[in-house]
Specification:
By secondary structure, this protein is of the alpha/beta class. The protein has helices spanning 36-42, 58-65, 94-106, 141-150, 171-197, 210-214, 227-238, and strands spanning 2-7, 12-18, 21-28, 47-52, 71-73, 83-84, 112-117, 120-126, 131-139, 202-206, 221-223. The strands form two sheets. The protein has a six-stranded mixed beta sheet with strand order 6-9-8-7-10-11, with helices on both faces. A five-stranded mixed beta sheet has the order 3-2-1-4-5, with helices on one face.
């Protein structure tokens, strides 16, 4: 069994794979990895991989150092099953990289845009030759609502759940629609732009907030909430024999 740990800005996901098959996913604190003891007692693990977009706490470091099997800590020097054209691989978020590697495994030899809607919204492109070309980073949904409130003197912090209409009729609906439709239009703009250059483009949507926007995008979207985990597992399998 493979252990895959993805530590994000908000939470951590711990997954078990049998070769390339996802067996089970656990969610826990990104500060304590409190689900890890249960996972280790439940499965016989041979190797693992860790990816984190935050600095690890001392508690997490101690847990990982105590593991009885080899663990890859994904960084800019980790061998990859694709070519990475990013100019600063050491600064590239592991979640961004893993997501495109996961999508490329599902649909090899295809031009793919991966949209990951989480704390931030990322747009990452891998071409049909398996070359990661780069991508962009944009504020996520909660960040946008919070910024409008904190960087102005009078705008309230609006709940994302509530009445919606395309043209707001009061401050609350204006903010809600401005944020949510703004994200939808942004996503559609990236899709349309890339499709104009890559007509057979495939689009993957992942991340905690991704499924809010899936049904509103008219393009064919492959929604996969475990894309990052699948990509990390592919990297782990690719490095089997190196650890």
């Amino acid at each position: 069994m493979n252990l895959v740990i993805d530590i994000g800005n908000t939470t951590a996901k711990v997954a078990i794979f049998n070769d390339s098959t996802l067996v089970e996913v656990f969610r826990c604190s990104n500060q304590y990895l409190d689900c890890l003891p249960e996972v280790l007692s439940k499965f016989r693990i041979r190797k693992g991989i860790l990816a984190s977009v935050i600095n690890l706490t001392q508690k997490v470091i101690e847990q990982l150092d105590a593991l009885s099997f080899p663990l890859i800590r994904l960084n800019g020097e980790t061998p990859l099953p694709i070519k990475n054209d990013y100019r600063t691989p050491e600064t590239l978020g592991s979640d961004r990289l893993a997501a495109v590697i996961g999508a490329n495994e599902i649909y090899p030899e295809k031009d793919i845009l991966v949209i990951d809607a989480g704390t931030a919204i990322t747009y990452d492109f891998i071409d049909a030759q398996g070359i990661y070309r780069g991508g962009n980073i944009s504020p996520g949904k909660k960040m946008r609502f919070k910024a409008l409130h904190e960087f102005t003197s009078k705008l309230p912090l609006v709940d994302e759940n509530g009445a919606r209409q395309l043209i707001g009729v009061d401050t609350e609906t204006a903010i809600r629609e401005g944020v949510l439709s703004g994200i939808e239009f942004e996503m559609k703009g990236y899709i349309d732009f890339l499709k104009s250059n890559y007509p057979k483009l495939l689009v993957f949507l992942t991340g905690g907030d991704g499924f809010l926007f899936e049904t509103n995008l008219k393009n064919h979207i492959f929604a996969d909430n475990f894309l990052v985990l699948k990509g990390l597992n592919r990297i782990l399998n690719y490095n089997n024999g190196r650890i």
